[in-house]
Write a structure and sequence with these properties.
The structure holds two protein chains of two kinds. Chain A is mainly beta. Chain A contains no helices and eleven strands. Chain A has strands spanning 4-7, 10-14, 19-25, 30-38, 45-50, 56-59, 62-67, 72-77, 86-94, 102-103, 107-112. Chain A starts with a strand and ends with a strand. Chain B has no helices and eleven strands. The mean pLDDT of chain B is 94. The chains are: A mainly beta, B mainly beta. The A-B interface holds A 31-32, 34, 36, 41-46, 49, 89, 93, 95, 97-106 and B 2, 4, 33, 41-45, 48, 50, 55-56, 58, 90, 92, 94, 97-107.
Chain lengths: 113, 113
Amino acid sequence: QQQVKQSPQSLIVQKGGISIINCAYENTAFDYFPWYQQFPGKGPALLIAIRPDVSEKKEGRFTISFNKSAKQFSLHIMDSQPGDSATYFCAASMNSGYSTLTFGKGTMLLVSP
Amino acid sequence: DSGVTQTPKHLITATGQRVTLRCSPRSGDLSVYWYQQSLDQGLQFLIQYYNGEERAKGNILERFSAQQFPDLHSELNLSSLELGDSALYFCASSVRGDQETQYFGPGTRLLVL
């Protein structure tokens, strides 16, 4: 059972454009939603994370929008750059004394020059 | 560089064999996680250890086992290997093992022939 659904699978955006990746979750007990970025040949690295007490979090060109009622959250990359070309994973976890992340299947982003 | 090291980087073996993957967490991190990444399943959580004790189990097969040693390094043992076990195996570490940043190693690419 896939608890975090991510779309699209792949995305091509022109340099300077906005990249948008969407995730939906099923488990209402999830209360921590990180995004990880993975470059080819590397392990994933935390990009930005949000908790459901806020609807938006911005760090530089990266913004998470969170809709608790719809059980959806999305990553927006403003002014996308070729260096942003990577695979992006959304994830979710619940505060149950330990934290295991449930990941979406990933979105391969290509920013064309 | 995340500070998490994994060895070996690549491993080629035959069906039915047994292999051991090794992970050294970041200095000061008490928790270690193991993930399997494949093209069709994405990043799947296998198991978590905290300060030598198993803390959480995910989609880990009975043929797979792990442990965390007193010096906090961890090993993932994969036995009776099947073609479908071919994947990237990542280790991640974190300080407390709760909802915090997980730092991923570079991964071990396993190919079962």
